Structure formats: C-alpha cells, structure tokens
Amino acid sequence: MPGTPIRVNPKDDPLDSSVITTPARVREYVEQETHTAITRLRLLLDQRFFLLRVTIYGLLLATLIAFLIPKTYESRTQLMPPDSELSSGLSSLMAMTARTGGAIGMLAGDFLGLKTSGSLFIGILRSETVEDRIIQQFDLRSVYGTKQMQAARRRLEENTEISEDRKSGIVVIRVSDHSPQRARDIAEAYVVELDRLVVELNTSAAHRERVFLEDRLKTVKQDLDASARDFSKFASDNTAIDIKEQGKAMVEAAATLQGHLIAAQSELEGLRQIYTDNNIRVRAVRARIAELQEKLQQMSDGDLSKSGSASAASLYPSIRKLPLLGVTYAELYRTNKIQETVFELLTQQCELAKVQEAKETPSVKVLDAPKVPEKKSFPPRLVIMFLGALLSMVLGSVWVLGKSSWDSIDPDHPAKLLAYDAYSKVKGDLRLASENGMRLHNMRDRFLWFKRNPGKDRI
Q1: Are 212 and 376 in contact (CB under 8 A)?
Q2: Closest-CA residue to 40 (of 400, 386, 337)
Q3: Which of 272, 280, 311, 373 matches a 20 to 30 Å C-alpha distance to 332?
Q4: Higher-confidence residue: 297 or 34?
Q5: Domain edges within the chain
Q6: Is 124 within 8 Å of 194 (Cβ atoms)?
Q7: What is the dihedral of CA 442, 445, 448, 453, to 10 degrees?
Q8: Tens-place pLDDT, residues 365-423
Q9: Which pLDDT band, with edges at 50, 70 and 90, does 58 fall under?
Q10: Interval 20-33 mean pLDDT
Q11: Nearest alpha-carbon partner for 338 in 348, 330, 326, 350
C-alpha cells in the first residue's frame, strides 16, 4: 500500500527512504527457578483458607471412611522347624507331594541348596485338600457370601499368610477374619490338618513295612486261630492233653498193674499149695487177679464200658491208640507252635516298624499356639485419616496452582478456546440428557399413575 512504512532489518539502514527500521529487540528477563517457587508458595499462602477448608473436608471424609471399614483381626501361630536331617520317609513324602499336587512343591531351604521340610509344610498348607477341609469345617462359603468353592478358596488364601523364616526355619501362619474367635479357630485348624495330612501322605519304607506287617498279622492271626481250634478239638475228642506225658504215665501205670498182677499170681500159686480152691483166701486172690487183668485189658483197649465208669474213659486214651494219636497230635501241635512263633515275630517287627515310622514322619511342633486376638489389625484409622488430610491438601494445592496457570493463559489462545468449546458442548449434552431423563421419568410416572387409577380417566 503506497505511503505505508515498511520495517526492514536495521543493518540495511537505507538513507532518505520512507522505510522504518525495526528497533533492536530488548533483552527479555528470564525468571529464575527460585523466583518461580517463591511465587507459587506465595500463591498457596494467599489461598491458605481455601486449602484449610479442603484439608478439613478431606479429613472428615477419611475419618468417615476409616470408621465405615469393618474391623479385621489377625491370629498367628508359629511352628517349630522339623528335623534338619531328611530321612528316607520325608524324601519319599516330598516326591509324592511334588507329583500329586501342583500347589505342593519343594523350595530351596537355605544358601547351601538343601531342601527342608518347612517348604513342604507350606506347600501342604496351601494345597486344595487342606483348604477344602477348612472351608467345609467352618462353612466359609456362607461367611464369605459365595457359592463356589473356588471363590471361597481364593478368599481364604487372601486372608491367610504363610511364610518361613530362612534363618531359623520357623513357619508362621497368620489368619485374618472379622471374628477374632474364628480367626483363632482357623489358625488352629491349619495345624491340625497339616499334622493329619502329613501322616496320611507318609510313604516311607517304615510306613510301607508297617502296613505290610499289619496285613500279614491279620492273616497269621486267622491261621493261628484256626490251628488252635483244630488242635483243641482233636485234644477234646481224643482226651489228648499231652501225648508224651500221657503215654509215659499210662506205661508206668500198666507196668505197675502188671507187677501187682504177677505178685498176685505168685501169691495164688502159693496159697493153692496149702489151701483148696474154695478157701476164702484163695478166692480173694483170684478176684484180685481178675480185677488186675481187667484193668490191664481196659488200659489196652481204652474201653471202660464194662465197669460202667464212663467218666474214667475220657481221662486217657488207650495205649494201642497212642502211636496213631501221637502222630496227629504232634502235627497239630507243631502247626500251632509255628503259627504262634510267626505271630510273635511279626508282632515284634510291626512294633519296631511303628517306632521307625514315628521317627521318619515329620512331626508338627507348635511353638506358639494361636490365641484370640485382642486388638484389630485393620484398618489403621489414624493412618487413613492422616493420608486423607494430606491427599486433600495436595489436591487443593494442585487445584490452586493449576487454576492460576490456567488464568494466566491468554483468553484468545487456541488451546483455551478449544477447551471452552469442548466444555460448553459437553455441558449441553449433559443438560439434554438430563432433560430427556426427566421427560422419561415424567412419562413413566404418568403411565404408572394411569395403571394405578384405571377408572378415573373413564369418568
């Protein structure tokens, strides 16, 4: 445009021209960082009453939240570390648990790389078998308000903390619950189920030997009872108490009778030389001889029926049957003695296997028994109140500084104009949605009123 001055670089410096040179730019003042921080602190100081109100509101809200959160109690129990030397039974148990359960594993015990049964205990306590037993025992599905066993297990794991001290090997079990009594009972149930499951899963050599011996003892006991019954029945039917002693006694008795018989016969021969056969003394000796012969015959045949003494027949078997009875008696007696000996040996071995199994089974030793907690473990109300007040003050400070920075931006700045435009549009959308919601609400009320009063519109 003619006559309009044009600014050029001052270095050109044209003479006698209408061109206006651009003045040299004044060096801008750069605000130091310390000045900026002081400015912000002064701004916060000016808004101290606002920050105080925001902090008080945050403190009140945090206090309300802290007292609305339900109390939680924690019960703790500590278990002594098992024996440091791992026996074959414990090694077998570790191998078994590693194969059977994914949650039951073995961890490194110490810096030397040795495997301890403390990690085994933790794996067993975290197994689904123990968790299911505890859930069923205390009906935790109803307590946690869930119907699925998996959800109850997850809640129980969240409320239970099981750890092991690497240096001492002590296993610590912490159980949290809204009821202090139930927290103590659940911690105690963990110890009981751990001891029971360790015994059930024990697969040591002593355990297998004990199981085998117990099964074998049952069979041997049955055989011993059967042989004892057979032996007693045979002895009762044949009056065979002790064939050897009975035979010796009967032979001695027969020899005695035979001696008396010979003496009586000699006496009879002497009397017949002096007296006639009708003499009383001769007749008496003859009668005694006949009696002795009859007794000898009865002892030989084992039949006392002629004399009518039935009770005497059951005292001793006949001499002629002694050899046959002796063979059967000796066989039954030998069988019975063998079964008795086997039973005694198996009983001794079974007792030794039980002792060895008790040695090889990892024992659960309680260092600190669980107790009913006297104080709550959660929530920390003072901490929540302090954090709430602090967070409110920080948010208030951020609001004050952010608002100051926003106000310092030029109103014609494109970003600020875009923000105002977006805010107005969103506000309009929300207002429209609110009006539509009110319309739908009024239409619903009218429809429900029409259904409640069908006769009014007809009149």
Answers
A1: no
A2: 400
A3: 311
A4: 297
A5: 34-69+379-408, 73-204, 219-352, 411-439
A6: yes
A7: -110
A8: 888 889 999 888 888 989 999 999 999 999 999 999 888 888 888 888 888 788 878 87
A9: very high
A10: 47
A11: 330
Nearest-CA neighbor of 79 among 178, 191, 174, 155?
191
Residue 12: pLDDT band (50, 70, 90) is: low
**Number of alpha carbons in the 13 Å side-chain half-sphere of residue 458:** 4
pTM here is: 0.52
**DSSP three-state, residue 57:** helix
- Alpha-carbon distance of 302 to 305, in angstroms, equals 9
Phi and psi based region of residue 106 (left: phi greater than 0; alpha: psi -120 to 50; beta: remaining): beta
User: Residue 351: which residues within 8 A CB-CB, separation 6 or more?
Assistant: none
Distance CA 231, CA 342 (A): 17
Which residue type sits at 232? S
Distance CA 224, CA 340 (A): 7
Outline where 160-242 has alpha helix (H): 180-201, 205-238
Which residue shows structure tokens 């001492």? 168
How many angstroms separate the first and last alpha carbons of the chain?
84
